[in-house]
Amino acid sequence: LVKFYAPWCKHCKTLKPVFEELGSKVSHAGIGEIDATKNKVAAEKYGVKSYPTIIYKQDGVVGKYDGHRSMAGLTAFLDRLNAPACIDVKNISEMKEHSAFSAGVSFVLVLSPAAADPEQVNNIRTTFKDVSVKLKQHASFGILEVDLVTDAGSNLLSKYGPIALLKVEEGREP
Fold first, then answer.
1. Which candidate, 22, 98, 159, 165, has a CA 20 to 30 Å from the CA of 71?
2. What percent of the chain has pLDDT over 90?
3. How far apart are CA 5 and CA 38, in angstroms?
């Protein structure tokens, strides 16, 4: 996590103690800052247009942090980045209960390997996991494998089919 700043920027000065505290308390991520007025090449490389701009890089994915600029906001963001990109769930409500994935929007891939082409299921699962790595800072991702034998499995199959992507939001049914 890198903060691009300008020495004259009031918002950057306000964020400075938060970033210093974050750097001293977080051991699972690299925390740094770059004076964008002195390092214009780096600022241009990451598309810095205003100050402060917070950039993250993980698993080849680079993006701008646009969340709350507080210790709690930044810590929650880093925890989210360090959580698994995609989890296996036993039911839809488990997605809401998982602590690292409790805020915002979640997507659940519902699969019934017994009711669909196994190669298609594997391709979709792989693609979904790849997407989850790239977008985990914005949403939560889970995979639910449905068994035809259980009542819950047959209910999901009759409602959504053998392969479905569900958007799960707080207070709304998928």
1. 98
2. 37
3. 10
